[in-house]
Amino acid sequence: DTAVSQTPKYLVTQMGNDKSIKCEQNLGHDTMYWYKQDSKKFLKIMFSYNNKELIINETVPNRFSPKSPDKAHLNLHINSLELGDSAVYFCASSQDGTAEQFFGPGTRLTVL
Amino acid sequence: RKEVEQDPGPFNVPEGATVAFNCTYSNSASQSFFWYRQDCRKEPKLLMSVYSSGNEDGRFTAQLNRASQYISLLIRDSKLSDSATYLCVVFGSNDYKLSFGAGTTVTVRA
Fold it and tell me: Which of A23, A27, A47 is nearest to A35 (CA)?
């Protein structure tokens, strides 16, 4: 029944490691997003994909690489994790870029 | 200047009170506006869209002032369950992305 799901929910790792977060939506939406919410609670868009094509790529270090194997999935891979990467990462989807966005439950990443 | 600015609060109000707060946006090309609600340690969820003429959804009223570039949300007859952070969200027609404010925290006490 879950509309937008993310795994894992919690991720604790050491600096320098590489990790991935997976996202899947079963809403049939064309557009998917990754957001980062830091300790100040600002939600900032990182990437947006429409039908597996990258359409928004904000100023994000190239250690972050999104991958969309199909339009229902948008995964986020992070290389060489840094302390500043600690945040909650939300995946979201929408029917098109202007419609309501549905968010996943978030992945709380802690880099030690 | 941040794209979307909100008074962070917190607004602490008793049950039954009315609470209202604003948000300002900097992109004059913005074309769609929303209020999202985020509970502690949960994901944001759409509360309501904001239309040019203003709109109401039960106890919630949203207004848009394009000339002054602000949006407001008013909650009447506050319930304990209204305690949350309210995020002002703006969609820009020139950059095709949603910009989020940092949120206004509302706490309704018994």
Answer: A47
Residue B85 CA to residue A59 CA, distance in Å, equals 26
pLDDT digits (tens, 9 = 90+) for A3-23: 999 999 999 999 999 999 999
Instruction: Evaluate whether A46 touches A36 at the Cβ level (below 8 Å).
Output: yes
- Would you say A89 and A36 are in contact if contact means Cβ atoms under 8 Å apart? yes
CB B106 within 8 A of CB B82: yes
β-pairing verdict for A19-25 and A4-7: antiparallel
The band of B98, judged by pLDDT with boundaries at 50, 70 and 90, is confident
Q: By C-alpha distance, which of B74, B61, B78, B60 is closest to B16? A: B78
In A43-82, the residues whose Cβ lies within 8 Å of chain B are 43-45, 48, 55-56
